[in-house]
Amino acid sequence: MNDWHIDAGLLGEYERGELDPSRAMAVEAHMQACPPCRSSIRVDFTWLTGNWSVVYDHVHAPKAGPGHRLLRRLGLPEHRIRLLTATPALRWSWLAATVTVLGLAVAAAWLLRSGAGGAVLATSFLILAPVLPVVAVSGAYGPPADPMHEITGTTPSAGPALVLWRAISVIGVAMTMAATAGVLLPGPGWFAVAWLLPALLLCTGTLALATALALPVAAATLGGLWLAGVLAASRLVHGEPFLSVVFGPTAQLGYLAAAVAAAAVLILRRRRFDLGASR
Amino acid sequence: MPPVSEQSSDADLLRAIAAGQTAALRLLHHRHAGWLRARLRRRCADPDVVDAAIQDTFVAVWKDAHRFAETTADPAAWLWTIAVRRLVSALRGPAHRWLSGPAADVPDDARTVPSAEELVLLGVEHGALGPALDRLSPELRRLIEATALDGLTVREAAQLLGIPEGTAKTRLMRARTRLRQLLA
């Protein structure tokens, strides 16, 4: 029976749907078993390449990395995950820089542990650690840091939501790294956590201030204020009292209250986020 | 893994696809997309759904080429089984499901129906089966087609035709009885 094949006329009728149902079934059954008859079906090449390009794109779609899977495990929606993991080019240089700075601080503190230098270094860690997340936030959005800003700014997701999502992601990473460094640092145990509330205040403060100023300007202002204030305090009181003044319980309460106030300002004025345009 | 060409057999192509060669997938797609499309279009009037089912099929082939059992199945029949099931699952979704569905419906080795061709062809070309099938009412004939020719289960056939499974079972029974009467 293999001498029976589909001829051009029959094939044409099949493709136009003019065949009796039973004969169409016969054509299909034969086609499945006979490669030459299968290939005799005419295919529109434009359609074929178009169809193939979709398959190709899908086959070459980037695979979800470990970070992507972790975020998905945490229950974030897919588009947020894409947003948080979409800029791998900048991520590594920034991570490496922060790790290096903190690593050097910890290493130097251990080397100089015996002398007075260790205390100075530990103190400078406490002072600088709150500024790190702020630096990270200042680069999270806006024209100087983000080369894609012109394009980002035209998308519907631009604005407060995007600033906050990016800020949260960089603050999260910076805080984790600084906390690790704080634990590794020699000195009293509370060193490891004493900088957290100042950092919280500086971050929310920066974001709150960004409703009035450009983000980098806001970050520079608050970071500068913090450094200037702490340095001024170190001029007035020396040694152990200095630490208890700047990082003691009273001061911590003050930081918390200020951070709450900043968060309130941020929520009230969230619609007025500076979107990187110069005012 | 030797490079593949236009002359490679389907089984060679599938082996190359399992080894991660995109060129082999392209050759397989260009070789089979045409007849799959012609055949799927007789079962679904929406060309977009048919195109998506074909794309879905080859994405599934890319992921599951290693599950193709060379010894027991014919590549074309395997492809058809995947394609028609993809069409069914595309029609089943609340909105049409496009790419990236779970590949759960790829059979380990396709239930090829080696007797189907001979049975239908012999019967239609030389026997009484052709007229009998033509005299069957369309909804009964479509069920026979979906189960005997397309290799679908009754449940899948019901989904393809958009009828409840129970209805499909009754109709299939009626179709068989009627065929028997007509052939007697």
TrEMBL record, chain A:
Pfam family for this entry, one: zf-HC2
Keywords: Membrane, Transcription, Transcription regulation, Transmembrane, Transmembrane helix
Transmembrane segments: 92-112, 118-142, 163-184, 190-210, 242-268
Database matches in InterPro entries: Anti_sigma_zinc_sf, Znf_put
Residue ranges occupied by any Putative zinc-finger domain in the UniProt entry: 10-38
Gene3D superfamilies named among the record's database cross-references: Anti-sigma factor, zinc-finger domain
Keyword Kinase applies: no
Membrane listed as a keyword: yes
Highest taxon above the source species: Bacteria
Name recorded for this polypeptide: Putative zinc-finger domain-containing protein
Species name: Actinoplanes utahensis
Automatic annotation (TrEMBL), chain B:
UniProt-listed InterPro entries: RNA_pol_sigma-70-like, RNA_pol_sigma-70_dom, RNA_pol_sigma70_r2, RNA_pol_sigma70_r4_t2, RNA_pol_sigma_r2, RNA_pol_sigma_r3/r4-like, WH-like_DNA-bd_sf
Domain called RNA polymerase sigma-70 region: residue spans: 29-92
Residues in RNA polymerase sigma factor 70 region 4 type domain copies: 132-179
UniProt keywords, alphabetically: Sigma factor, Transcription, Transcription regulation
Any one GO BP annotation for this protein: DNA-templated transcription initiation
GO molecular function, one term: DNA binding
Gene3D superfamilies xref list: 1.10.1740.10, Winged helix-like DNA-binding domain superfamily/Winged helix DNA-binding domain
Key word Transcription regulation present: yes
Keyword Transcription: yes
CDD domains, A to Z: Sigma70_r4
Top-level taxon: Bacteria
Pfam families for this protein: Sigma70_r2, Sigma70_r4_2
Protein family (similarity comment): Belongs to the sigma-70 factor family. ECF subfamily.
Protein name as catalogued: RNA polymerase sigma24 factor
Organism this protein belongs to: Actinoplanes utahensis
